[in-house]
Amino acid sequence: MRPDELLARAGMRQVAALALTDHDETGGLAAARAAAVQHGVTLINGVEISVSWRGQTLHIVGLGIDPDDARLRTGLADTRAGRTRRARNIAAALDVLGIHGSFEGAQRFAGNPQIIGRTHFARFLVQQGVVKDVPTAFRRYLGNGQPGHVPYQWAELSDAVRWISGSGGAAVVAHPGRYPLSASEMNELLTEFRACGGAAIEVVSGSHSPQQYAAFGELARRFGLAASSGSDFHSPRESRHDLGGLPALPSGCTPVWEKFDLVERAAANRATA
Question: Is the separation of the CB atoms in 216 and 208 below 8 Å?
Answer without folding.
Answer: yes
